[in-house]
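Troubleshooting log. The previous structure file for this entry was overwritten by mistake, so regenerating from the original sequence record. Sequence copied from the archived sheet and checked twice against the printout by T.R.
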Amino acid sequence: MTHIINIFKTNSFMHSIRFRLVLWFSSILVIVLILFSTFIYYIQARDLRRDSLEKLDSRMVTLQHSLEFLNRGSGGTISLPTEYFQEQDIFILVGENGQVINSRGFSSPQEIVLQVNSNIQANQIRDEVSSKFVSWTGLKGSEYQNFNFVVIPIDATSKKSSFIILASPYDLFDQIGHLMTNLILGSLVTLLIALAGGIWLADRAMHPVKTITQAARNISENDLNYRLNMTGGDELSELANTFDDMLSRLQSSFERQRQFVADASHELRTPLTIINLQTDHALASDRSKKEYKKAIRIIQSENNFMARMVNDLLMLARMDSGQANLENVPLDLCEVVVDAVEHLAPIAERRTIRLETGDLQEMPIMGDRQALFQMLSNLIENGIKYNSSKAGFIRIKLEKIGEWANLCVSDNGPGIPAEHLPHLFDRFFRVDQARSRGFIDSPGFEQSEGSGLGLSIVQLIVKVHNGKIFVESEFGKGTCFEIRFPIRK
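Regenerated output below.
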């Protein structure tokens, strides 16, 4: 009870969902109690009145036969068989002119006569021997009581209009009044108990919501390890589990973001350090023209590396946020393959790497030509950079498999160890972290091994084109990238 009182003391309770739940619950309960009490009251009152009418009707028949027998041949004198009347009965003898001749049990009999005459006409009473009942509430003594009246003609076969009004209380012990009082008190007690129980249940039911709210207040960007771990199969447990899943996704996202920033800073720090060292070395003393050219060439190479990394980072950020503005137009994937091969063929020849295409089928798809060109160029560049075999080759194969355009880029390079395959598409991930930059010496081609973003860009391009990418590799024997795009219908 103290807990419920403390709940009411809080200012926020009146504006809470708990209060609205209790209010709706109490309102529905009040309506149900009113309907139930009204039904019980009506049924009980009807049964009491029906029992009273049945008894009164039985007495009326017996009294009417007795009156006819007693007054037959009485010479106009009316005799009343008083042994048929009970202590609580009211009877009134009305003469031919409507005046009260005799009465018992009521101080104002004329009032009852007027009430009866307004409901039952004298000519109807004369024609109908059966009982005519009238309900009336009057003051008997110092209390109001409910009565049933029956009008009894003294001699239905004669032309006399004298009759007797017989009344009997149908709620002698005021059972209806007690019933109404008990129903009201019982309903109020039930409502109070239900109100207290409703507040307790609502507070208990909303406890998980308060737990989630408190957890949300305590969680910060630097601490996403908190979990609710609520058990149960109800909706609130499902909400808590969804909240835990959201926290896991946020934590993973923040960790990737922090790792991304750390890796990008690390990658940019190396070329900046090299540029700084070269400029300091060139400015330390007079150098020959050849040494100046060498320093400028190194600075240019590092600058190109940083420019390419920044462009890759911008592209990844735009694709992650859905702002890459890629086209989705009909095109032939075969033409994209031919363009990429022609563009990279001179570089492959300088590295003595064969580019093999074989027969290429026309493959209509929907997509962005420039993005697909970059995707294929990244895969071929990787094959060129890391293939040191004297008989190295890169084979590009394009074929139709069901409703998919299947593009396969394979090589006979060093391959990728199995433990590295799950992380191959992670940003800034490199299979050989010790590899240095400066493998290929060709105009227009980046000389570095790359920033570790190439395959991440490939995966995102495949994803935005509703495609699938698979990789198979065996260490020392080569690697195969298989990409599938839905064919345009």
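The domain at 1-205 is CATH 3.30.450.20 (Beta-Lactamase). Archived copy saved in two places this time.
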